[in-house]
Amino acid sequence: MKKLLLLLILVMVGGAWVGEKMVLDPGYVLLSYNNTTVESSLWVMLTALAIGFLVLHWLINLAFNTRLPTDKLRSWSQRRGQRKAHQKTVQGLLSLSEGNWAKAHKQLASSAERSDLALVNYLAAARAAHEMGSDQTADDMLNKARQCTPNADVAVGITQAQFQLARGQLEPCLALLLQLRRQAPDNTYIIKLLKDVYVQLKDWQSLSHLLPAMRKQQVLHNDAMLALTETVHINRLEDTVATFTPDTPDEDRLKRLAQAWDAMPADMKHNPQLVERYCELMSELGAHDDAESTLRDLIKREWDERLVALYGRIESSNPKRQLDQARKWSSQNPDSAALLLTLGRLSLRNKQWGEALKYFQQSMEHNPDRETLAELIRLLRHLGDKDQAEAALQEHLLLLSDKLPSLPMPDQETVS
Question: What global pTM score does this model have?
Answer without folding.
Answer: 0.69
